[in-house]
Amino acid sequence: MVFLVLNVIICISLIAFSFTIDSEKKSQTTNTAMIVNSTLFLAALFGLMAITLALCFYAPQQLALTVGKLTYLIMGWYCINTCIFLYLFPNREKERKHYIVQWILNIIAFFLIFFVKGGGISNISITYDNTFQIASGLLFKGPIGRSLMLTIFDFYIYSYLFFIPIFTCLMVLVRGENTDSIIPRQKINIAVMGVFATIIVMAFIKVSSVYQPMLRSLFVVGFIPELFVLLAAERNNEIWDKKLVVNAGIKFIFTYLIPSLTIALFFMLSWPIYSRNKVLFFVLFIIQCCIIFALWYIVNQFIDKKGLVRDSRYAQAFSEEIAAINFQQDSTYITSKLFNIFNKYVDSSSLKVVVDSGDGFFEYAYSSVPEDEKKSFEIHSELFDKLMNIKKRVIFKEFAQKDSSVAPVRSDLLNLFKQTDSDAFIMISEGHRLIGLITLGKKFSGNLYNEYDLKVFNNLYSNFFVIGYYMKNILNESVVGTVNKEIKMSAQIITSIQENMDRIKNEKYDIGYRMVPARNIGGEFVDIIRLTDTRYIYIIGSLSGKGIAASMNMVIMKSIIRTFLAETSDFKLLIQKVNTFIKESLPKGVFFSGLFGLMDLTSDTMYYINCGAPVLFLYTRAYNNVIEIQGDGYILGFVDDISKYIKVKKVKLAPGDMVFACTDGLIETKSLRGEKFGKSRIQNEMMDNSSYPADKIAQFAYESLGQFTSTQLEDDITIFMLKYLSSEEKEVKQ
To answer: Which residues pair with 433 in a beta bridge?
Structure first.
């Protein structure tokens, strides 16, 4: 009964594991579909074995025999299926000849189990002394058969579970030796190790079944090492060098071996002493396990902190150090820090940043190789247009050499790797506008940039965007103000970027705005982005902070919003991405309060998400009234997941209606007597000036504030005005 339960447990575990692999494959570029199918195939085998055992206990013998034959037939089919997969592994496609060979071997297996003269399997039973027996006729008759004592079932097991897999491994190893690429050869070697691991486990079970015959019912367990090693081989995309193997071995010893052996040793030594008092034994055993796990946790934390044993899974530590770069530091510190991080975690031998100089050439903004700093080379627009169209921002040399999607520009792509002496580059773009590249040299270990690197780089793209933007707009002398060391960008450049927005070109709508920083430049901004002729996004808001630092963050955020819009058409998802970018990529303590609006000019509907906007007013001409519509809002940059806190709202506009939004500088500004400007004055301005163009209404609101305070502004002021023109106003506009 114990062996029946074990088969059921393993069956259920494998089904659950198949779902795990299937969910992972969506985020991986590796093809694990075959592994998923094999996992379910193997789960079915364990399920059939459990049913066979149950029938041996509780059903007629003939029924148990039929299901048992089916179980062992499918076991042979599973082996053939695995061998075909191994023969084609890792990149070859299944052809007609492979299907023919597979089905010939499947039919032979069917014949051996069900129709061979003398019976492949003549009886399956469990005796009263719990012996699992499989009866089968001899393969050879006469003296030869009696001397060899080789049954048809044994011949079937040896052929399908041992000889055919070994023969397949030999063919695959020969093919692997003739493979030029290191990664595929290593994948093949790992896969072959899995097959031999399965053969060893099965041989052990077969020998052990002499002493415990019920172990025959767990024969299928032998396939599990093969399955997991094949999965590891499929996922593997890095060369196993000496350092990696040693580090993995040391980590295995500290993480698994020492704790396991310690627990086992305590059990062996204490059981004879406390076996009569089982309650005391289990209490002591639990205490001992807790102590060992506590020590295990402390030791592993110490090893990770000191970096004594570092494996290839560097994502968390790498992202933390990238995010911790302080852009207020000296440029030499920033660039050397960046290179050291890539060198430490990714093993990159060099790092270079090239930026678009504006005249059709790339120039070096930074290079860890000093002689590169004065070089420049031509930008191939066709190449980068192609990469943007297929949404590839991180490119590895291995990809460039093999992927068919870049075939038309492959020569230019490979030439770029040659010019920059690199094996990988990260393309920094603002929407479809190229800013520059971060290029990475070969790895010191000789490893290739692999799919794990690709996943990490894509996840951290927003961080690299900040770095690339910084290198182009702050280190690039052609666009940097040189007033002093503290000011990295001039007010003129900031203002021009602030006012760089798309205009709504529609006769029905009029837009006006005012941006007045209290100290020349700041973090407040208005942006309008054209999606289509009838759909526009507008943003008004403020990034925390003052002066140069806030304005730099504002410029970066305006750029990244356009980049995100090239990736997603979901309005709410856009805000989630912006929140994550602020939280993870901008300096700590930076947050955004404001409003995101989406105008659908076809239906005259405004969708909006309040992200801490202090004021959003709607003037309805039909009722000649101003109402507040912003509702609750949540500032971006405080929480990791903003999705549950934000809601998309909408309002239908009619001719003569107006939408007014502003930052808190307008309503919070105080007069000499300490009175706030407040919301009621804004409402009055909208009512009194509703017949004027949108830009005039924004101007009147600002002038009213100036008359109210009679002093210099203490806070930045930003006002946004959207007006749906009446028929009379349209005629005036035209």
So the answer is: 430
